[in-house]
Amino acid sequence: MIAVLSLHDPRLDVKKRSVRLLLLLLVLAIGAAALAWVAPKLKRRFYTHGLNVVTVARGLETPWALAFLPDGRMLVTERPGRMRIIERDGRVGPPLDGVPPVWAQGEGGLLDVALDPQFAQNQRVYWSYAEPDPAGGPGASTAIARGRLEGTRLADVQVIYRQPQKTGDVRHFGSRLLFAPDGSLFVGLGDRMLRDEAQALSSAHGKILRLQPDGSAPPDNPFAGRPGALAEIWSYGHRNVQGLAWQPQTGALWASEHGPSGGDELNLIERGRNYGWPVITYGREYSSLAKIGEGSAKPGMEQPVLWWAPESTPPSALLFVTGDRYPEWQGQLLVATFRNGAFTRVKLDGRKAVETEAIYLAGNERVRDLKLGPDGWIYLVVNAPEGRILRLAK
Asked: Catalytic amino acids?
């Protein structure tokens, strides 16, 4: 405004007025460019498809996952090592007794939770966690345990699977759990920063496993009986699997995976296949953006269906939308992310992602888990800046 008024100052000659006019035009141009850059981001940031984001429960410390009990209550894990029941009215219960010690450092801690398909009969709960060395040595590895839910405790707790090798690194534990229609248990594991082991069939690092409910390997797994190979491996060449989901229409298994910078992936998982890490990737090193491996493709190694580049969009849980609450998303895949309190909607056509859209929520939460509740609504586990359970309603 001052600049505009000064253009009419009678003390200014033509040359000075021209200079000030040019400066004014420059300021206006910069302002218009800034508005054009900011406006779409503001619109995108709060674009929620008309959904009402309802806080169901709060006051949790770094929640990682939830599982719905048959009566509508929720089992929720907190990464420091606690499992709690959240009542239908949102009241957060005390920590359950019986959870074994966890190695709560970095990305490690109490991680995923899943109910046995026969939970109504056996009351069994399965969970994954970073387990300290039972012998007292340094480091940790991902372990799978199960126990029977009795009121406010877990009874008859058994560790049914342990990654054979423990390391002191605090990254890349995985680890999503998913029961298959045939009752077997799939487990997504990270490489624990031992990259080359993702290609080694003698190591569980960087693998998706298929286990029987007691932790043993099904005899029809792809590498069962191969000398030097772990019989529990279903697929390999993974960096850090964070999401697993069955596609209802096709019965296909999908996985989300944390990659390096610009290399986060969505993969269609098939029996015995090699997904390339660290030999091939579309990402680069976080620290230096240096190239990793041999390139982005190689014969005998699978391509991701979708990857996020150049900016990483760290993916976590996966959810295929069913029911009639969200008719516009029916049958589509939602990929939770750790940035901007968002998830990505993916429309699939066979092996192709034909449409994607980022759904942004108000706030800057890290969305760790997505579940479809018994009421048909989508529930989100967010663990920063405050641990909460959210519901997407209309």
From this structure: 172
